[in-house]
Amino acid sequence: MDFHEYSLGNVNGLRLGLVSTISLTGFLGVILLPFYVYYFGIGIFWEFFGIIFFVLIMWNHLSFRLMRYSKKSESIVSIPGYFSRRFGEKSIFIRMFSAVEIIILSVLITGYIVKEAAIILNAMTGVDKSVFALVFLLIISCYCGIMGYNSMAKTVYIKAIFVLVVFLMLGIYMFTRQSIAELMRNTMRTDITGSVSEYLNVLYHNGRMLASNDYVTLLSKGLLVTGMPFMLINFFASRESRVITKGRNTAFVFLVIFFIISMFVGAIMRGFLYPERITNSISSFLKMYYDKLAEGGGLGRVMSILLIMLIMVALISIVEAFINSITVIFFEDIINRGNVVRVDHKFMRETLISVSMIFGVLIFFVEQYLGHISISGLMMFVAVLGCSISPTVFMSLVWERMNGAGCIAGLIFGMAGVGIFEYAPIIKVDGVRQSVSVVFGLSPILPAFILSCLGIILFSLLTKKPSKEIVEEFREVRNRIVE
Fold it and tell me: DSSP letter string over 77-111?
């Protein structure tokens, strides 16, 4: 069995671009962003823009160098493997630390996503939440264990076309149920915050004009996509610059089309759902949406079924991406390179399937024992993972003086920074101690990102310089000299 093929597949530029974006837009784009537009208004556009902007930054400034490092070594199939190669690690500490961090956070994030999806489907169809979660995770983990990266690559065309077509069909169906005048009147009749003109204005968010800190908060959320392991691992799958270029162009076109549709769907939702009152619960929101579609009978009933299928495809896309990256990282960086267990090459496939299934079951138990689900809780774990991995990878590709100590510092400072800036009462205002996020009205993402970069710089400068060989390889990769 070829483990490199299992981990990264053999994809062209079109598949490469779609695999990364369909995973990203699955749960985020199909479920969260339309809900945010429905609830807050068109001002959430800046979060869309931030995601597209940082995805392009990632493709333009990270992808080529990560690809060149993977060409230097066939052993790079994961982010921990890249860190180990980049810093010429003689021990396994960096590899093991980053692997354990990514796995734990990925399991928690996947558990939250599956739990929220189970709540949504239970509200819409009455399916038992626990039964759904267990059956779904067993099927997906088994499929990912057998197919590896190709579990995503082989089906990505079907998923991408289905998501775009069905999403657009749902938007058109809602739009044609009422005249534009009636749609606007119904939107005005809902318990809208502010006026309809403000609701449909990109300069307003939740009924008030955006301030400078609001733009920073919304745009900075796009930073998180550059720290998702399943996004970065895609760049190791390519061996040619033209594949990366085609993948970047594909990702950009898909994201723009998808987000335009998502904005369209979310913007007309209030008018379509009238006279239902506005809800801040995603499951209640989708339940209302499902019921409203089904009430239309005939075509409406078909649309309600397509909505369930769309949610399932979105869920599959994100969960299989996380499970695949978890399986590869655990096998390669903990079992294989970490020398925890010696695996006979003859039984590699069976071992990979077992690892994937074990994590599927583990995610189920995590999902079962997670407390009250909230999207803010989910996004906090996503922020912790993103703010830990993103600045560390970025700095490792642009600063040759960075060393292993700086890498560990970046991972720790980024991970801890989110909680510190969000919750720690470190600033006193009018006699009351409050967190940085509360005082400045900012998301903790950007401060945590900056803290991680400062930690990298400080610890790298205070410790031993990288060896001559590591610096030479860094310069070769930077200057496109790769044998």
Answer: -SHHHHHHHHTT-SSSHHHHHHHHHHHHHHHHHHH
